[in-house]
Amino acid sequence: MPRNRHQLVVVSNRGPYRTVPVAGKRGGGRIRVRAAGGLVAALDPVLRARGGVWVSAQDADDANQPRPDVEGGEPLEYKMATVALSRTVGEAFYQGVSNAMLWPILHSLPPTVGISPTPWNHYETANRAFAEAVLEVSDPRDLVWVQDFHLMLLPAMLREARPKARIGWFCHIPWPGDDLFKILPWRRQILDGLLGADVLGFHTKSYADNFMGCLSRVGEAQVDFSRMTVRHEGRTVRVVVAPIGVPVDELQTLAADPRVTARAEKIHRQVDHRRILLGVDRLDYTKGIPQRLRAFEQVLKSDRSARNRYVMVQIMVPSRTDVQAYRELKQEIDRLIGDINGRYSSAGKVPIQYIYRNLPLDKLVAHYRAADVAVVTPLRDGMNLVAMEYCTSRIEGGGALVLSEFAGAADYLSDALLVNPYDVQTLAQTIRDALAMTADATRPAMHALRAAVHKLDVNLWAKDFLDLLEQRP
Ligand code: GDG
User: Fold this and answer.
1) What residue's CA is closest to ligand 1, atom 23?
2) Cβ(383) to ligand 1 under 6 A?
3) Is residue 243 within 6 Å of ligand 1 at its C-beta?
4) How confident is the model at residue 17 (pLDDT cuts 50, 70, 90)?
5) Across-strand partners of 55?
6) CA 439 → CA 83, 200, 239, 371, 443, distances in Å?
7) pLDDT at position 73, please?
8) 458 lines ligand 1 (CB under 6 A)
9) Is the CB of residue 337 below 6 angstroms from any atom belonging to ligand 1?
10) How many Å lie between the centroid of ligand 1 and the Cα of residue 384?
């Protein structure tokens, strides 16, 4: 088969699929399932449409499992390559640096651990291992698209080996102001690492501006704010605002599937036709889940009839379960839900339904269709795809979106009910107002929201970004 002139090589820490045991099958059969999370939700459709290779780190647990592309499920439309990291390097790179230091600081939240040099060496080693894997599966004509904060040294490592390569990097999470970024002792290495790319993408203008500010105050590169370009080692690097979106056609088709419609009706019956407030998140302390639960508790507390009229469904996907801060958050959420359900259940009606697992996409979309209000309240979030998926799935119109002003999505979805998630009283009032609205009253705003989300289709996001890479002089 003739090879695309520019093959697409996507590089990210976690891969798009994991293999899990088939329920109830004796003899240990395994099946491939798509990993939850925004990065995979965005890039899997792109690679399926365009073909190419996805390079990611192999999970230690998966090391001896059958290769995902030959065992179970649909055949894969693209290739996968894995980077094997030793346990020590893998843990220090992923947990020690990426999760414990970079994740909070880039979200403008205080780090949960001390900043220390030991794991940083492993971050460098891991980025080097990714560079070797990418060089092995690609050739110099390819488009290499590096994803996210785990791999910020990789662009410069690739550039060193292939001065003419086309390299992009995309930041799925926020970029903070230089006052916070400067906490990282490796700030210069990080910026130099990123400047190995040709195009650096951010979800919003404020993240891109923050990044340029960091460059001008921390690095030595020549920064042109009006053109959003940087001169570095004889090359020009472009900094672009590239808001991610969702696969609109795919989601709408799924939402219109009669089986999804039937499931949405079943969800309504199961909650005795109470109005549904829906939360969907990876379990993460940036997502503002306790704040949202406390706000719903206030709704229940302030009006006795609320428990007969409303139910909250909270879907939470397990995430980073081996990290202490995440385990503690899970316990806090379990306790809160237990307390609220204990206190406000009446006549067999439980106020909060809690689903702690990764649902198949059709079931998730059925929940979006069934929900009268979606509540998305991150304390800080790069973009937030759940907000967009909710609007896309509302094919019959109607439905209210309560959205944190600290999600990147708030820059694009101004017709949502925007809230400050730290202000639990006002959040409770907004949820109360949203639940009290009739479907007809929510229609105009949802119409505008759907139009905004349609403009941000994920395929367009990828096409625009890759066009920029291809066009590089
Ligand atoms: C990062 C940034 C940015 C959730 N539960 C289930 C499920 N999900 C899917 C959702 C959605 C994705 O996970 C979550 O995406 P988000 O964007 O909300 O959040 P992060 O995972 O933190 O993603 C974020 C994103 O990257 C993209 O750049 O927007 O700001 O933090 O797609 O649908 N999917 C399935 N079952 C579930 O139970 N199938």
Assistant:
1) 38
2) yes
3) no
4) confident
5) 11, 81
6) 49, 41, 41, 11, 6
7) 47
8) no
9) no
10) 7
Cα 313 → chain centroid = 20
* Distance from Cα 416 to the centre of ligand 1, integer Å: 19
Nearest CA to ligand 1 atom 33: 386
The residue whose CA is least distant from atom 19 of ligand 1 is 38
The predicted structure's pLDDT at residue 23: 64
CA 183 to chain centre: 24
- Give the pLDDT confidence of 48-75 residue by residue, as tens digits: 888 899 999 965 444 344 444 434 445 5
Distance between CA 313 and CA 375 in Å, rounded? 10
CA of 368: how far to CAs of 244, 385, 448, in Å? 20, 13, 17
Secondary structure (DSSP) of 315-337: EEE---TTSHHHHHHHHHHHHHH
Q: Whose CA is nearest to atom 28 of ligand 1?
A: 172
Cα–Cα distance for residue pair 276/13, rounded to 1 Å = 35
Q: Is the CB of 282 within 6 Å of ligand 1?
A: yes
Residue 265 CA to residue 396 CA, distance in Å, equals 14
The answer, yes or no, to whether residue 88 has pLDDT greater than 70, is yes
Tokens of 303: 């009006």
The protein residue whose alpha carbon is closest to atom 34 in ligand 1 is 36
Q: Are strands 166-170 and 53-57 parallel, antiparallel or unpaired?
A: unpaired
Cα 266 to ligand 1 centre (Å): 25
Mean pLDDT to the nearest integer, 215-224: 90
Q: Confirm if 100 and 285 have CB atoms less than 8 A apart.
A: no
- The string of DSSP letters for 171-205 reads --S----HHHHTTSTTHHHHHHHHTTSSEEEESSH
The tens digit of pLDDT for each residue in 94-145 reads 988 999 899 999 999 877 667 777 789 999 999 999 999 999 999 999 999 9
300 C-beta closer than 6 A to ligand 1:
no
Separation between Cα atoms, residue 228 and residue 213, nearest integer Å: 11
Q: Average pLDDT of the chain?
A: 91
Higher pLDDT: 20 or 363? It is 363
Q: Where are the beta strands (DSSP E) in 105-248?
A: 143-147, 166-170, 199-202, 222-224, 229-232, 235-241
The predicted model gives 81-93 an average pLDDT of 92
pTM of structure: 0.93
Name the residue with the closest Cα to ligand 1, atom 8: 36
Domains of the chain: 8-244+459-470 (3.40.50.2000), 248-456 (3.40.50.2000)
Q: Mind listing the pLDDT tens digit for each residue in 220-249? A: 889 999 999 999 999 999 999 999 999 999
